[in-house]
Amino acid sequence: MTREPVPFFGPAREFEELREPLLAAAEDVLRSGLMLQGPAVDELESRLAQRSGRTHAVAVNSCSDALYFALRALGIGPGDEVIAPDYSFAATASSILRSGATPVFVDIDDTYSLDLELAEEAVSPATKALVWVHLFGRMSDCAAIEAFAARHGLLLVEDAAQTFGGERDGRAAGSLGNVSCYSFDPTKVVGAPGSGGALLTDDDEVAATVRGLRIHGKAADGSFEQLGYNCQMPSLVAAMLCVKLDHEDAWLRRRRELAAAFCHALEGQADLPDLGNEREHIVHKFVLRTPARDALRAVLAERDVSTLIHYSYRLHELPFAAVRSNRVVDAGRAEAATREVLSLPIHPFLREEELDRIVDAIAVFGERAGVLA
Fold first, then answer.
1. Where residue 55 sits, what CATH number does that domain have?
2. Radius of gyration of the chain (CA)
3. Which one of 77, 282, 294, 320 is separated from 363 by 20 to 30 angstroms, measured CA to CA?
4. Residue 372: is its pLDDT beyond 70?
């Protein structure tokens, strides 16, 4: 009998669990006829601002757009340098390049965050901003990041795409620096039926600029004085995200239960994430490290367990990034990570039988490694 593969993502199962409230929310929007900038968008923005402690939240089509709009609204452009981690999703680099600025890539520390000590070497007279990425769901040290930015007079953009719901030392993901950005990509812990993102700020002028940028550059008085884009979040998307926000707490608890089980099974066999307290690591991804990455992945594949590699590249190596990037501060850590990291399925809709299958596969991997040692 063929068994069902263990899926890496869980949107289909999520829909089955939330079918009725999601369809009801969709029907309300469709009946209203307000497909763009409807009440659901206002409600989502209000809830996001409240959760992050920000004055403004602006819903847009994606976090990639939010990152670009953040830089543009802050006045970053050609001739400016922006410090960013060399190990992240491609949008970290593309958003900087879209602004016309030049990224300066800095290697990571042992937590996959940009290494602030190395970043000291990256600052030059042209450096105007720092894009900070909380990777894989782990909150970084907000005070240390803000102190670095203040010391060097840098604008600070927080990429909280992978850390929605995170908290550390009394600070929420989305509250750091001048501007913060969320992602509601379908693979995120709160995912849209399509694409979605949000920009958060306490700066009235930045918020007004971005509200215009997302609708063809339209100003509050209806005029079109700046070059803009069509990057609105549809009301349908906002309505469904509002439904899902009510389940974020329960979903986080389940992901952390799964992460604890993985850590127990893998103890002594791989470098594992530090889960910290309840919200310090929201486990958007469960990323382990081992030199035997390919062997472990093969054992899991034998048992029909889906895995992914986050990430197999460094940003400065991407062809589109290499065109403009002229400085990289490298200590070899990101390069090593590309060869050793492996991500296990961690969504809250993973079944107990599937968890057992993953744990059993890990045990088999350990036995084989012991035989070969």
1. 3.40.640.10
2. 21
3. 282
4. no
**CA within 13 Å, CB half, 57:** 26
Domain boundary among 229, 245, 261: 245
Q: How far, CA to CA in Å, does 119 sit from each of 36, 39, 101, 148, 333?
A: 41, 43, 17, 9, 14
pTM: 0.96
Answer whether 333's CB lies under 8 Å from 103's CB. no
Q: What is the pLDDT of residues 327-349, one digit of tens each?
A: 899 999 999 999 999 999 999 99
The verdict on residue 1 lying in a domain is no
Query: How does pLDDT run across 72-91, given as a tens digit for each residue?
Result: 999 999 999 999 999 999 99
Give yes or no for a contact between 182 and 169, defined as CB atoms under 8 angstroms apart.
no
Q: Are residues 227 and 259 in the same domain?
A: no
**Domain closes at, from 196, 225, 245:** 245
Question: Looking at residues 116-139, what average pLDDT do you find?
Answer: 97
Q: What CATH number should be reported for the domain holding residue 329? A: 3.90.1150.10
The pLDDT of residue 2 is: 60
> 303: exposed, middle or buried (C-beta count within 10 Å: 0-12, 13-18, 19+)?
middle
Q: Which residue in this structure is represented by tokens 């107990």? A: 352
- Mean confidence (pLDDT) of the chain: 95
Q: Is 190 helix (H, G, I), strand (E, B) or coil?
A: coil
**DSSP letter, residue 4:** P
Distance CA 348, CA 257 (A): 9
Under 8 Å between Cβ of 327 and 82: no
In a domain, 315, yes or no: yes
Q: Is residue 286 part of a domain?
A: yes
Using the predicted structure, report yes or no on whether residue 212 has a pLDDT greater than 80.
yes
Assigned token pair, 142 = 């907000």
If DSSP codes are grouped into helix, strand and coil, which group holds residue 313? coil
Q: What is the domain extent for residue 46? A: 11-245
Instruction: Specify the 3-state DSSP secondary structure of 319.
Output: helix
Q: Residues 6 or more apart from 371 whose CB is under 8 A from it? A: none
**Residue pair 99/310 in contact by the 8 Å Cβ criterion:** no
Within this chain, do residues 192 and 294 fall inside the same structural domain, yes or no?
A: no
